[in-house]
Design goal:
The structure is a homodimer.
Chain A (H helix, E strand, L loop, with lengths): L3 H9 L7 E5 L12 E2 L9 E2 L3 E4 L1 H5 L4 E8 L14 E4 L11 E4 L3 E4 L2 E4 L10 E2 L10 E3 L7 H9 L4 E5 L4 E6 L3 E2 L10 E2 L2 H10 L6 E5 L3 H14 L2 E5 L10 H7 L2 E6 L3 E2 L5 E6 L5 E7 L3 H20 L6 E5 L3 E2 L5 E11 L2 E6 L16 E5 L5 E2 L4 E6 L4
Parallel strand pairs in A: 5-6, 13-16, 13-17, 14-15, 17-21, 19-24, 22-25
Antiparallel strand pairs in A: 1-12, 2-11, 3-10, 4-6, 4-7, 5-9, 8-9, 18-20, 20-21, 22-28, 23-27, 24-25, 24-26, 26-28
Helix pairs in contact in A: 1-7, 4-7
């Protein structure tokens, strides 16, 4: 049995490269950017009027002029006009190019307009006021967004502005999620007294959807030969296999055996943690040099869930090149946990005065699926300790943000 | 000009009901649950074996028996067996029903098995050990998930388990996002010197996608009649209209005028805030009793962005019935802001020892789109103050979690 840290190290040493693809920029939301985004021109690309009002030549204001004849109008979206008489003014709209021979904008609030004359109601006026000068935000050629980050609304705006209608993002792997166990029936079936419905496969689908992965699911019965054929086929068609169940000490827990018979190289089996101990992880090396990761999670609902967060999330993040933000939380109650295992404790997260508080949720062990709906995440309590004091901080694995 | 608080109050007094629909449960991820989810049976539904091993009748262990003849095997997914001889044992697998006449499970780790005999290597043994008793987690008929929450992976697991292959969720409204401004060209076009590409419409699409809304976009030029026809058509086909631009004091800012001509009732125009001041909000009352909200955001990129977070997000949350989690952060630097306005300041968020720290991002005003990519959210600094001290806490509007 290895430690959580050792298991994580091995997993992160075995990442996969799924390559890069180009997609329409609006399909890139939530994906991992795989190219630097450069400014195609200065930001702003011209001296941009930042307020609706009039543009003048500041010199005349300094001379004491307050009444300016309106020579013309410069709407947004029109080519740059030229003010012929430097003592006049131009009406200008937000987003417009500043007209030639003007250098300062006075907003309508500070101006009185009578037919063709504008009267400025100001005693002082800063030169260059209300102008967003060319290149002030960013210079042409500058990197606006470095690659390897998750694309949010903020990035979409910039990507649109620089004209990247197609953008390079990390390819999403093809993932097959296989549930195991003869006790499972489909969601739309009525289980017999000794049966339950499949659920782990679908919680995994949901957890992967947060990573923009659209996984497919299937089910394997506790039949060794059928399991073997199923895995063989899935290894051909998918980049990653996730299993739930059949990795413990049961008579029908054929999975580790079958995977090894199929040439999947075991990296480890069993991790010193609760829940999720019987986790099995292996790599299938293909002749063409591609490696495929196989995550075989224990079948208890909380075990599957927590292991996906603890292992699959960082493995995937590293594989596609981004870094998961690390969060810590302040434990809100004393906790005692005696076994010499890393303890993943379900918590509700509350923010109070800028502090992240973790309130433990009392579940009934790794089978208590419903307790997950009362929590927001898990905190990771280290193996070396048995008492965990209120007020101490621990890493948080969060699955609910709202 | 009204305050941010007053604007929010008006907006939240004008929510819309989009109704409820039933969708396949896997399509419900991220949606708002609109029915309570009940336990269709006890959780677990039977006395469930929690460890692979043998099941015995504890009385015999108490009598001193340590060698148990194996009478049979109870796999997961098989109907409940009956152990005929109470002094014998049954091999049992995790997830199986506990066989009749047994009451305690001993895991394989504590047993030695030789052909048909199991030898228990324990001195003491708690009765009922390693059994997840029927109804321990939840009783049949109990509410497992109350309605009006966002469905995460945790809820998906429970919904699957209770057999809700179809689940009731809040309907997603049809939203039209209209950008305005003659200076705008499409993303795949090369702008002239005085033009820029459309971007606000797409940042809004991305921000709404986080709420599971798939919005459509269109563009209106600065032509009053065309704008009017466009709005009239969109009011017929959509539940909500969002605008970006044409609400300020410019000569071609026809939007407030046109909306009022079309019978949209202005609720307010201009809010004492920076950025985002010229925000216009109105309601179109239809004869059939439905009201449609029109959010007309100012056209500067940061203004549009922040107003969507400040106003549209809570309005939508209340409309569909969930509560946005309120977050506060600790300001990491002193900030001075003199205007008598609520200040939405861009910040990067860092978590240190369970504390959420807000590090201000120095942008170049409301036109500096690229600065959004360096931030994770905005903090809301109240109008009544001008100096904001390092260490004080303020509300956070976050748009980036990873």
């Amino acid at each position: 049995m290895i430690s959580v840290q050792e298991a994580l190290r091995i997993i992160l040493d075995n990442t996969q490269d799924f390559g890069v693809e180009e997609v329409p920029f609006l399909d890139a939301i939530g994906r991992v950017l795989k190219e630097d985004i450069f400014a195609d021109r200065d930001f702003p690309p011209f001296n941009r009027v930042a307020m609706d009002g009039i543009a003048i030549n500041h010199r005349y204001f300094e001379y004491g002029v307050r009444d300016f004849k309106i020579e013309g109008i410069q709407p947004a979206g029109s080519p740059r006009e030229k003010m012929e008489n430097a003592a006049y003014c131009y009406e200008v709209m937000t987003g417009a190019v500043l007209p030639e021979n003007t250098d300062t904008v006075i907003r309508y609030e500070d101006v009185q307009i009578n037919s063709l004359m504008a009267k400025v109601n100001l005693d002082t006026l800063e030169k260059g006021k209300n102008i967003h000068t060319q290149g002030k935000d960013r210079q042409q050629g500058e990197i606006l967004i470095p690659k390897d980050r998750i694309i949010t609304a903020a990035e979409i705006g910039v990507i649109a502005t620089v004209g990247k209608s197609m953008v390079k993002v990390a390819k999403v792997p093809k993932v097959m999620i296989v549930s195991t166990g003869d006790e499972l029936v489909e969601v739309d079936q009525i289980p017999e007294a000794h049966q339950i419905r499949r659920s782990n496969a679908f919680t995994l689908v949901s957890l992967l959807e947060k990573l923009q992965i659209k996984a497919t699911t299937s089910h394997a019965t506790d039949n060794k030969e059928q399991l073997k054929v199923k895995i063989l086929n899935n290894l051909k068609t998918h980049d990653i296999l996730l299993f739930s169940g059949a990795v413990s000490k049961g008579k029908f827990d054929y999975l580790p055996e079958v995977l090894q018979e199929l040439g999947v190289e075991k990296q480890f089996h069993r991790v010193a943690q609760r829940p999720g101990k019987p986790f099995w992880f292996g790599i299938k090396n293909h002749l063409n040099g591609t490696n495929k990761a196989i995550f075989a999670f224990p079948g208890n609902p909380i075990s599957t869930y927590v292991n996906c967060l603890v292992y699959f999330y960082p493995w995937f993040a590293k594989s596609v090149g981004f870094t998961l933000k690390e969060e810590t939380v302040i434990l809100a109650e004393n906790v005692v946990f005696k076994p010499h295992l890393t303890y993943f404790l379900q918590v509700r997260v509350e923010v109070k005065y800028g502090q992240l508080l973790a309130i433990p949720i009392k579940g009934n062990g790794s089978g208590d699926l419903a307790s997950l709906t009362m929590a927001d995440g898990f905190i990771q309590l280290p193996q070396a300790q048995t008492t965990f004091k209120k007020g101490a901080t621990y890493p948080l694995l969060r699955y609910r943000n709202s």
